[in-house]
């Protein structure tokens, strides 16, 4: 769960224990829980969407929706209540009790209801004196709490790491693992110790865990998902039946990312054999979210175990290839584009671990189309998106050739300046493309340097066709974003085929003369670790406008940007401005915690930088000469100790032009 406070975590030398079998303390088989998780768990958790705003009606309605939406039948069986379900005090016998207002029927009645839907109930606590939200937790109460949960019919425990009194993690998590085993009930044991003690190397299985967090908390944005993905590299050898690496819950459908980003998030977690724990409001999810969570092909990838979880097999900077061998000899592949523009991404069959052969059957796990490849597995991948395939040797008779199609253009469009866009059609199949035709569509009033349609009679296997146009935007609308779309059509031995790709560069103009609050200027881009970049408010970590007034060192500021490290805000100046200034620091809402650094960059060159600034300190002035600068970047990084509580403010940030 999200932690807005700095947390003390014990230092524990990591154990170097490769994966063998599920064990509990002392290396003995984990008894009643040994066979609980032969595959990663699928389910739902209340925290990402609802935080502490939970009650028994929400849980009952969610269980109903999991059934009616088809999620249960797809394998989502755990309904997990996160923090804030408890009363503020234990009962007279020392037992945890449910909040009497929000859970008046009690947890047992809720478990009975969930079980009646052929689902399972999960609960939450922490290996500390209090939960992350300040409720009673289970340190030194392990046996009575485990017995209580078993008596209630609980099937899953998420065990956090807050208020841990700096006691060794091994002791704290082992005590709960032993207590769960003694109950005799199959209870999934999910260690949420944030990867601080490298639990995948031994601690996780040694304490009886079935899954263990490998990172800090996820947030509903692309930066967070990619940061967590980076931390999964090299962990594949530690996962397997009985013990799974957990890169945290899904954010699919919570509104902070695009559908393309959510599809990439889900595909990557599936290939990683990660627990797929939905975190959205399933009662009201839209069709796009439903299609993602109910993608049976990707659920099959996630639930298939062939000896290793997915791993990164190729890294070309912003373009990556992740692959997972499947038990039937196929390979699941995610072609990931982390960059700002469309890209053609691929890997050879040999790189993917496929046997040598003349052809390969390729199924797109989103469109369900199937194609033939001669050995290069490539796709046209949108910005912040992924193409996901499953690839088998052979079986390509009568299939159309595998192709990729991408439209590439500038990051932004400046004024009425002409710019170039290029469409590329590549044939990676085993047969030719006949009468290929590419057409570019631009907004009304825009001008092309030639015909919108380009044609070629033939694209051989292994060949490509490229078309380039010069485009002039008219009229210019400041801060607008428009789409340019390219469509490709061609004939094959399997019939007619079509592809399309689009770009949406922002139309930008330089700020007019005068002094401008940065919070009132359009952003070319804005990325943030937790929650969106806020204008004239502090960062609240989750939804837009959930922060408070910008306050640093007891001084309140009317304007500015509220961010959370790591963060980057890009602003177009177009060489029209001369100076940038701000008062910067950690917002007072962190109660004296947090540590960050601020950087100002002009066209990639560092113009100003601060030392590490800590919570509770007064604001520090930052000034930079931006004469001749086209693109301004305002960056915040953590102070080297992780990014918990790193709420940073660009207070009174001003551009003079």
Please supply descriptive tags for the structure shown above:
alpha+beta; globular; 11 helices; eight-stranded parallel β-sheet; disordered N terminus
- Note the overall shape: globular
Q: Main sheet, how many strands, which sense, barrel?
A: 8 strands, parallel
Hey, roughly how much beta strand do the residues contain? 25-35%
Count of separate DSSP helical elements: 11
**SSE class:** alpha+beta
Describe this structure in words.
The chain has 11 helices and 41 strands. Strand 31 (550-552) and strand 32 (555-557) form a beta hairpin.
SSE topology sketch:
Blueprint (H helix, E strand, L loop, with lengths): L41 E4 L1 H4 L5 H13 L2 H4 L3 E3 L25 H11 L3 E7 L15 H11 L3 E5 L8 H15 L4 E4 L11 H4 L4 E3 L8 H9 L13 E3 L12 H13 L4 E3 L8 H7 L2 H8 L7 E6 L2 E7 L5 E7 L5 E6 L11 E5 L5 E4 L2 E6 L3 E9 L6 E2 L1 E6 L4 E2 L4 E9 L5 E9 L5 E2 L4 E7 L4 E9 L11 E9 L2 E9 L3 E2 L6 E3 L7 E4 L5 E2 L14 E3 L2 E3 L2 E5 L2 E6 L6 E8 L8 E8 L2 E5 L3 E2 L5 E6 L5 E8 L8 E10 L1
Helix pairs in contact: 2-4, 5-6, 9-10, 9-11
Short description:
The protein has about 650 residues and is of the alpha+beta class. The model is unreliable at about 1-35 (pLDDT under 50).
